[in-house]
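Changelog note: in this version the structure field was regenerated for every chain. One regenerated record is shown below for reference.
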Amino acid sequence: MATSPELTSIKVIDDKLEIVNQLLLPHVTEYVEINSVEDAYDAIKSMKIRGAPAIASLAALSVSQHLIRALRATPLPDFLASPDSLQTHTETILAYLYQSRPTAVNLGAATRRLTKTLHDGVAAGKGVLKIAQDLITEGQLVADEDVGRNKSMAKWGGEWLIEQVKKNGEPGEGLNVLTVCNTGSLATSGYGTALGLITYLHETDKLGKAHFTQTAPYHQGSRLTAYELQTLKIPSVMICDTMVGSLFQHHKIHAVAVGADRIARNGDTANKIGTYNAAVLAARHNIPFIVVAPISTVDLDVSDGSEIPIEHRPPLEACLVRGILYPSDGKVEQAQVMITPAGLEGIYNPSFDVTPAELITAIVTEKGVAVKAEGTNEFDLSHIV
């Protein structure tokens, strides 16, 4: 199934770079032009674009755009005077972009990848223009490689789940899967991670229904996942975040599939706030809990979840909801409203929580599926990274 144009989070034509403004979805589809590294930083920080792979893609593509335009300028900018000046300039840009949302390890992986290309070029004695072109190519590859690996991990995870269900004496079809947040084409360069697994099950006629949480306070589930599932015509059911336990009590759910913003060496996983709640409830009901994320999300330098930095969003964001006025009377009018008393103090608003490895059944990357050795609560991720 091809990715629908309306589900493309990033559009690139030569040096023209656009993103869909996810703050306005699902009611308004507006593409925002990115004309500078500063524009990319703002889009990531303000969550006009979100999802760890998509963030990394935009950051890398903005560097490519910056260098493409520099090479076409007359005269050439000063930072293209020598390899050393290019190195200083580019390292400053990469450090700046990394600070936009540091919990998403894919962003760090992308900036490190470009840094390595830069350092390798300088060390090899390449000319400044060749190094700049290498950086452009590498930045574009960060985004281009994403779709293929997403399809690989979706297949790995989907087939693993079907096999587990069959081991339990069930037919391996009509599978109901719960997901949290948004991990589809809007969060990546295409197809998706955990939502990609659901899409794969749908494409192979193995899916019953996709269930998804609203994912407060930013509502990436009710705004974005709902939009993607509706567009792809995948049977789905939305639930409030507080309904997960009730869902598990009263309906047959075969698995929970979520994405990740960072996976520690032992398998502890940081993902959108509310993921840990779902994992605890899944363990209580013996429901497999699957993390689906690219290799770039695994951070082997972090031993466990206690070392993962957790981003806290501005408290005001937890007090606001956005959408369109209802009833609409045929007009689409965006609105943002406050749902709390004005001036409320004492607001706790982390973007992510950490699910311990002991609550995770399987971790899937584009290289395969990792499970814990019997009797242990930690993963050996060596064969899937």
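Spot check on this record: Confidence is low (pLDDT under 50) at residues 1-6. The longest strand covers residues 207-213.
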